[in-house]
Design brief:
It contains 9 helices and 12 strands. With 305 residues, the protein is an alpha/beta fold. Helix 6 links the parallel strand 6 and strand 7. Helix 1 packs across helix 3 (47-58). The relative contact order is 0.14.
């Protein structure tokens, strides 16, 4: 089923070249169904690349979805023009009265900062609380997970001695979960982070359940039964070159980055990496959207009640 994205969004051309079905507002208005409303709170510097990554996964679902691009209200982007943001993004303060079936909160390149020192942390706290009244199924990614666990559960992240970067094997710890329906027992996921979540610091009341784990890089995905949220520390959304571009960027900056693990063929950064996680990423997002569709109220105004 097509995904509806803002008309004239530059990402549309990329998605259409990949064969992703997109539709404009006029066509969507003629369809007599209630599309799922999904928001993308995009905290990443490269807005357009992140839009494409998540839009291609959402569009793989058979459900019609409307994707709303959201940004922090009180934050000036250094990498995306204000004109672009005003054209395609809504400030959170302008959509806070709306209800959403799903909301994706991306990572952000600020893992070195204490949460309270992040300039937009007060608004992030408001947004996280808002998900409990206005969002049926929140999905937090990477730094978003660390922020949500800290805010909702007081769980502190743990700094790794070295950055975990590469494509690591992960294990399905909850085959009966609707979010892991059809998953293999063992699969690959891209990882790029400095912080871990220590399982020994998780609440003992059973509110947080580990769905995906890794012997090499620890916890990957958690389900939060208390706050109706999913926490994904790693990156199903990455395309084949995401880690390569990070590696090349850091090399040019003189940071002497470690070679991503299990990524470049023959550990040769001149060779094109293979995407070994694409099918698993599509399956997860289809499962997430299907579970959302099965459980969300038909009357969207009933969300949160």
């Amino acid at each position: 089923m097509p995904i509806r994205i803002p008309d004239n969004l530059p990402a549309r051309e990329t998605l259409e070249k990949e064969g992703v079905a997109v539709m404009d507002s006029a066509r969507a208005a003629r369809q007599d169904i209630r599309p799922l409303q999904i928001g993308l709170l995009n905290l990443m510097p490269n807005k357009e690349r992140t839009e494409v990554q998540f839009a291609r996964l959402i569009a793989a679902s058979p459900m019609q979805t409307d994707l709303t691009l959201v940004r922090i209200s009180d934050h000036k982007s250094k990498n995306t023009s204000e004109e672009y943001l005003q054209t395609f993004y809504s400030k959170w303060e302008d959509i806070r009265s709306r209800k959403f079936d799903g909301l994706i909160v991306t990572g952000a390149p600020i893992a070195h900062l204490p949460f309270e020192e992040v300039r937009y942390w007060p608004e992030m706290v408001e947004i996280m609380d808002w998900t409990q009244t206005n969002v049926h199924s929140p999905l937090f990614i990477c730094w978003g997970v660390q922020a949500a666990l800290y805010h909702f559960h007081g769980v502190e992240r743990k700094r790794r001695p070295e950055k975990a970067v590469g494509v690591y094997r992960h294990q399905n710890k909850k085959p009966g979960s609707p979010y892991l329906r059809g998953f293999s027992d063992d699969f690959a996921i891209p990882v790029s982070r400095y912080n871990d979540i220590d399982r020994d610091t998780l609440p003992q009341d059973g509110s947080l359940e580990i769905l995906i784990d890794s012997d090499e890089v620890g916890i990957c995905m958690l389900e939060d039964h208390k706050y109706r949220a999913l926490y994904m520390l790693n990156h199903f959304e990455y395309d084949a070159r995401s880690l390569a571009d990070e590696y090349e960027r850091d090399e040019k900056a003189g940071l002497n980055p470690a070679m991503p693990v299990n990524y470049f063929p023959d550990n040769d950064p001149t060779k094109m990496p293979l995407n070994k996680w694409r099918s698993t990423g599509h399956l997860f997002f289809q499962n997430w959207i299907n579970e959302m569709y099965q459980t969300t109220p038909y009357d969207i105004d009933e969300i949160g009640k």
